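On clarity, I found the account of how folds are encoded harder to follow than it need be. Since the whole study asks how a given chain folds, the encoding of that fold should be made plain. For illustration, here is how one protein appears when written out as sequence plus structure tokens:

:::
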Amino acid sequence: MNKIQKWLEKIGWLNCRVEIASADASFRQYFRIVKDNRSYILMDSSLEKESLAPYINVTNILLAAGVKAPEIFEKDLEEGYLIIEDFGSVHYLNVLNKNNYKTLYNRAIDGIVKMQRADASSLPLYDRDFLHFEMNLMKEWFFKKYLKMQLGDKENMVIDRTLEAISDTVLSQPQGLFVHRDYHSRNIMLTSKGDIGMIDYQDAMNGALTYDLVSLLKDCYIRFEPKEIEKLALSFRDKKGLDTDDETFLKWFDFMGMQRHIKVLGIFARLYLRDGKSGYLDDLPLTLRYTLEAADKYEETRPLAKLLQKVRLP
């Protein structure tokens, strides 16, 4: 905190009140700064300074597309600090319930449609290699290191064949779109003016149509009625004006969800084992449930569902 106060004085932000706002799954921290009765957020990326340039680039891409991303007021890439617009403290997760989720999700779906108008051409490609790099985190961190499962040749073959089938279907849907990559209830803010604010998008990529949709609707932190979620997914298709039948679109949606949730099983285990962040273990059961439900629906992925059905979380 003293280092931050000294930096604020250095850039002329005097007599500010500073308090901790939040942290995230990375090594970033966020502080709320009050200056002249106005509130700002200081993003402390001093432990991963390399993340700031992508954050600034993606912010500019989103703002150019008319998306509500935080305005940047001060930046110091050498120290690893940004001062950005404060969207408040109300996340979607704070307010979502069975009475309002359809309305709130529809607004967030409109946000995806707007995000996908952004120019993603400069962003890294979400290609087959990267899809597999992410999914392989499940084998390494979830199965081997967290569950301490010994995977034999048969189990490895099931996993490898399933991951190929998943990536085939993911890559069969429209590509070349802006992908936030973490568009869920903890990263969507309700501002004091009632707008939706986007945060934590610095890892955005150029990828598949349904990634952000499934991040939103099959959220690892909250769950709603699957049939209603499917209707909301199809409403996104209609808002995009896609001439795709229900069965095909929902398969895209489900397979994209499997790719994400397989990855997240590995990430949550890694956050616990490597980074000491045990809170994410509470979210493993829902993530595993989403993966199982989707995998059990399709012939190509049913062998993985049978393998996952044997899993007993500690």
